[in-house]
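*** Protein under study ***
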Amino acid sequence: MGAVYSFFSTKKSLSFVVALLVVLAAFPFFFLGGPTPGSTKLFCALWDSGHIIFFVVLAFVFSRIFDVSRWRICLAMLACVFIGGGLIEIIQAQVGRDGNWQDLLNDLAGTSIGLSWFRRANKWVWRARIVSLSACLPLLMSISGELAVRINSFNQFPLLEGFESSIAMYGLKNAQRSSDYHSQGSYSAKVRLGTGAYGGISFTRLTRDWSSYKKFNIDIYNPDSLQLNMMLRVNDVQHDTSGWVDSDRFNKQISLASGWNHLQFSLDEIKQGPATRSMDLTQVSEVILYAKQLPQARVIYIDNIRLE
């Protein structure tokens, strides 16, 4: 009877009630809402952090019901989270959500943080705290990187990218910042084009609202004497969420002569790129430059991507 009384009296604690309500209110979001293919990278990273926060709060609730100073209780809760979190990820994958094991690791990290911080400290508890906090570092670094990109994009707009800041290279593949050739400032992006089916670069972190401008400009330097044929692709969020159909975006073949190529495209032309609708210029989500099945690897330099 004493244990029952203790349990119900604990429930009267305001912090316990608030935490329990947070858990109950947040749980449906494992299956509702969340990132879509058109969501920004920053939103995705922040959403992922919700896994850690949720399980920290859940651990707090458990710490007010069970004696988490006992390691067996902690291990039992971690086992329950592992099984329950794994089932959630499996169910998410079956209902069209993005189920992945990184979310399960975030679940376990949040639980470990909560269990280790809501108990009396000793050297073993401090080691558990350090390990659990360290498990969160990749996600925290992702959030800080995405936030830095957003701030940099905001400050330089309507310059979409000039590569003057090292943060401009965050998340870009097959590219590095270079001072060899540049059409403005001191740097450009050196892009290596492979010999696979498609070789190029994708910009997915540019400022999305282009609706107040008339022209899209990009400078590309071809260091070779041979002409290089590439494709320029621009698409919006709706394209990302409707199956990536080729005819539902702006596609333009471009020929790059040796030296600098200063390319300009009308945003009206880009807007009319999709075959059956108008592109939403307030939600431009991706700009891609690529070449198909090159006989040999090539290099280009990209600079001064901007709106006018």
User: Anything to note?
Assistant: Residues 1-5 have pLDDT under 50 and may be disordered. The two ends are 75 Å apart (CA to CA). The longest strand covers residues 298-307.
